[in-house]
User: Fold these one by one.
Assistant:
Number 1:
Amino acid sequence: MEGKGKIKSEEQKRINRDQLLTVGDLEIFRTEMIQEISGLLKNALGSPAKKWLKSTEVKKLLAISTGTLQTLRMNGTLSHSRMGGTIYYNQEEILKLLKDNEQR
C-alpha cells in the first residue's frame, strides 16, 4: 500500500509541475504577492507614524540630548503639551522645523 501512495504523490507533483497557468491563477498569485510585499513593508517601516511623540522618541529622532531638547522647549523653538509628568511633541511640527532649517 505504501508504494502506491508514494507513486501517486510523485504523479501529483508531476501533474502540478506540468500544468498550465490560467489568468485566474496569475491574478491570485499577484494578489498574494502584493499582500506579502505590503506585510514586509509594514514590518520594515514599522507602524504608522504617531502624531504625538514622547521626549525619549524626540531625542532619538533628532539625536539630541535631554538638555538640548529642554532648551528647544524653553526658547519656544519646539512647542509641547504636558499631561501629568509626560511631555508630548507634535511630530508634524518637528518635521516642519527640520524642513524650515534645512541647509542647502
Number 2:
Amino acid sequence: MKKSDLIEVIRKVVRKEVKAALKEQQDKIAPTTGEFGQMMEHAEGLFNKQQYTNDDALNEAMNMTANSKDEWRSMGGKTFTDGRAGLANAMGMASPDQMFRGKPTAQQMIPQDRQHVEIGDDLAGVLTRDYSGLMKAIEKKKGKK
C-alpha cells in the first residue's frame, strides 16, 4: 500500500468518526426541547414547504395547516375528531345526536335572530336535507382520479 493511499484511508476514517462525535455532542448540547427546540421546529416547518396549488396565498395557508402538528384538533380544551362530534363538543353536548335529537327541523336550522321569519317548504327541504349521500359520491369520484 502506498503512503498516499494510507493517508486517504485515515482521512476518511477520521472524518467519519469526527462527524459521529460531533453529532453525539450536538444532541447533548442542543436538545430539541424548550424554547430553542421550538424555534428549530418552527424553522424546519418554514423550509419544509410543499407545493399544493399554484395560488401562493392558498399554498401558504395549506402549508401552515399541514405543519401545525395537529393543533387544529383541539380548541378551548375540547378535542375535535370529526365535524359533527366537534360541533356537538363545542356546544357542550356529549354526542352529535343531542344536537338536534335526530334529524333537525327547519326551525332548528334557522339562526336565533331569524326564528320569527316564516320559511317555505322548498327552503325547509334544503335546510334539512341529508347530504351524506352527495358527500359519499364526491369522495368516491375523488378516489377514481
